[in-house]
C-alpha cells in the first residue's frame, strides 16, 4: 500500500532534471510571530507557478512510448491543467484538457498558451468525466487523475524531498490538503527522508473532508465548496488516503478569515505572491502554535497563480 | 569626483556581512516579451524590504565611535527611514527620524517597529529640514542624506556589484532614478565590475528631473510629484549627479500606465511583490526594447514595500 523508499527515490531522480529547484525562504518576523523556525519551500516559483508541475512530469515520464504518442487527457480548471499542458509540451506529448464551459477565460488562455488542447464540457463533474472518457475512447489517450494517480502523488512529494535535502533536521512539514496528492507525497518524503519528521496538514473548515476522513477512517465528501482556497475543494482518493492515514499526524482546520490573514501576512513579509490555498499551512500554524513551538517547521508553499483583479484584501 | 575602485570595493566588503545576498530571478516569458535575457536582482527581499538598507549600513559603519554614540538623524517618509532605523538598531546606534505629520500611520509604525525615534515635522521639505537641524543641534547627531551622502551612494551600489559577481557578462544594468543614490552607485558598480557593462535608468515622465538634468548638464527640479512611483519623486544631488553624468548612458522615461503594466507583469510572472518605483526599469525596457534586444540585462528590483490595501490594479 505504502510505496517503497526505492520507488520514491526513483521518482525524485526522474523529476529533478525537469523542474526548478525552488528556493527556501525564511522570515525573522514570522518566526517571532509563531515561536517556530519556519522554512518556506517556494513552489510558487515552480514552472507554471505551482508544485503540480512535479506530478505531471513524473506521470508523463512513466508512460510507454506508445502511450506518449497517443497523449494524455485530464479534466481540471486549475493548476493541474496548466501543469499537464506545459509538461506535455516540454516532452512533446499531446495533451487533451477538458475544461468546464464556465471556466474563467484567463485559465483557458493559460492552458492554451502552454499548448494544451482544450475541449469544453458541461460544468458538472459528471459532464467533465464523460467528455474525458469520450476523448480517451477516440484518441487512446491515457487519463491522468490530478491527485489520486500514484505517479502524480510521487511527483508531488519531490518538493518535500528537496526541502529535506536542503534542511534535513526539520521536525515537521506542513502542507495544504485538497485532493490529497501533495499531502500524501509530502508524508512519504517526511517518512523516508526526515529524521523523525512529522507531517501536518492545513484544511479550510468549509471543505474539511480530509479532516473528517482521518477521523472516520473512510473517504468523506464535501457538501459545499465555499472556500477561497479553490485548490482545496476536492476530496481524497483510494490511492492517497491510505498513505495519509498511515503517515499524517494531524489535520488542522482554519477559518476563511484566517486564510486571508495568513495570505496577506506572507505577501507583506516574504514579498511573494501565493494563492489562498497556499496560505492554509501558515494559517494552521498560527491557529494552533502549540504543535510547532521551538520546532523547525517546513511549509510547502504550493502555488502562486492568483487573479490580481480579484484579491480578498 | 568619481570614487576610486578601491573605495567602491571597500564599501562592498564593509556592507556584505550586514545585508542579505539577495537572489537573482529569471523568467522565460519576460525574456521572450523583451527579446533580451533579463536578470532580476531581488532587493525587494533585502532586509526591511529595499536596497536602502545597504546605503544606511555603509554610512553608519563609517561613523567614528563618538559619532555613533551621538546617533544619526534623517528626514524621510519612505524606505530610507526604515533602513536607517533597522541598521541603527542592529549596530546599536540611536536613530532620530523626522517624519512629516501627514505621513501614513503604517509607515510610522514600521519605523517605530525597527526602533527609530520619530519626531513629527511640518509636512513641507523646509519643515522637515528645520526639525532635522534642531535635532542635530540638540543631540550632536550626524545628518544622513538619503541619496546624496557619498557613503550612502557607495552602499547602494553594492547590489549591482553582487549582481555582477553572480553574472559577470551583463551588457547593461537598468535601475530606477529618484534621488540618484541607487543610480550613481549602480553606475560605479557597472564601471568597475562590468565588462563593458552600460548603465541605463528608467524614470517616470511625471518627475523627469534626472532626464532633464542629463540633457541640460545641471540639476533640474520637478514642479509636481504626481507619480505612483513614490520613491522617485526627489531630485539629484551634487555628489551623485557628477557620477551619473559621467557614467549613465541614457535615461528612458515612462508613462504611469506603463509603470502599472510592468508592475503587474512582474507580480504575475515572477510571483514577487515589488513597489511601483521598482517596476520602472522593466517599463523602460518594454518601451524602448531596441537598446536591450539580444543583450544580457540586469535589473535592480529596488524594493517591495507596498500598501496591499491600495493597489493600482
What is the chains' assembly state?
homodimer
Biggest sheet overview of chain A = 6 strands, mixed
- How big is the Rg of chain A? 18 Å
Low-pLDDT regions of chain A: none
Task: Spell the H/E element sequence of chain A.
Answer: HEHEHHEHEHEHEHHEHEHHEHHE
Q: Count structural domains of chain A.
A: 2
Mean pLDDT of chain A: 96
Report strand % of chain A.
15-25%
Placed side by side, the strands forming the largest sheet of chain A appear as: 1-2-10-7-8-9
Name the overall outline of chain A.
Answer: globular
Measured between the Cα atoms of the first and last residue of chain A, the distance is 43 Å
Number of helices of chain A: 14
Could you characterize what this model shows?
Two copies of one chain form a homodimer. The first copy, chain A, is built from 14 helices and ten strands. The first copy, chain A, is α/β, with parallel strands linked by helices and 313 residues long. The first copy, chain A, folds into two domains: 5-50 and 156-301, Rossmann fold (3-Layer(aba) Sandwich); 53-143, Rossmann fold (3-Layer(aba) Sandwich), CATH 3.40.50.1100. In chain A, the strands form two sheets. Chain A has a six-stranded mixed β-sheet, with helices on both faces. In chain A, strand 7 (172-176), helix 10 and strand 8 (198-204) form a beta-alpha-beta unit. The N and C termini of chain A lie far apart (43 Å). The interface between A and B is medium-sized, with 17 and 17 residues.
Amino acid at each position: 500500500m505504502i510505496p517503497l523508499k526505492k520507488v520514491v527515490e526513483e521518482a525524485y531522480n526522474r523529476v529533478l532534471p525537469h523542474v526548478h529547484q525552488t528556493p527556501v525562504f525564511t522570515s525573522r518576523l514570522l518566526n517571532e510571530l509563531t515561536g517556530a523556525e519556519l522554512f518556506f519551500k517556494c513552489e510558487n516559483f515552480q514552472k507554471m507557478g505551482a508544485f503540480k508541475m512535479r506530478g505531471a512530469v513524473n506521470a508523463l515520464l512513466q508512460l510507454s512510448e506508445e502511450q506518449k504518442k497517443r497523449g494524455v487527457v485530464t479534466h481540471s480548471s486549475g493548476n493541474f491543467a496548466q501543469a499537464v499542458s506545459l509538461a506535455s509540451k516540454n516532452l512533446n506529448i499531446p495533451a487533451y484538457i477538458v475544461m468546464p464551459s464556465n471556466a474563467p477565460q484567463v485559465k483557458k488562455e493559460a492552458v492554451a498558451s502552454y499548448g494544451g488542447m482544450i475541449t469544453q464540457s458541461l460544468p458538472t463533474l459528471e459532464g467533465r468525466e464523460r467528455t474525458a472518457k469520450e476523448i480517451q475512447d477516440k484518441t487512446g489517450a491515457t487519463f491522468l487523475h490530478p491527485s489520486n494517480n500514484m505517479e502524480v502523488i510521487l511527483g508531488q512529494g519531490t518538493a518535500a524531498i528537496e526541502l529535506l535535502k536542503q534542511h534535513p533536521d526539520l521536525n515537521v512539514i506542513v502542507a495544504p490538503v485538497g485532493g490529497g496528492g501533495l499531502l500524501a507525497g509530502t508524508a512519504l518524503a517526511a517518512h523516508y527522508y526526515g529524521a523523525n519528521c512529522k507531517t501536518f496538514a492545513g484544511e479550510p473548515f468549509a471543505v474539511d473532508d480530509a479532516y473528517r476522513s482521518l477521523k472516520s477512517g473512510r473517504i468523506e465528501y464535501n457538501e459545499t465548496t465555499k472556500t477561497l482556497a479553490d485548490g482545496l475543494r476536492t476530496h481524497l482518493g483510494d490511492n492517497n488516503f491510505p498513505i495519509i492515514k498511515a503517515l499524517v499526524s494531524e489535520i488542522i482546520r482554519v477559518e476563511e478569515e484566517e486564510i486571508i490573514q495568513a495570505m496577506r501576512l506572507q505577501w507583506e513579509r516574504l514579498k511573494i505572491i501565493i494563492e489562498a490555498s497556499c496560505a492554509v499551512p501558515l494559517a494552521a500554524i498560527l491557529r494552533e502554535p502549540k504543535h510547532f513551538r521551538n520546532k523547525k517547521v517546513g511549509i510547502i508553499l504550493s502555488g502562486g497563480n492568483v487573479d490580481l483583479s480579484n484579491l480578498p484584501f
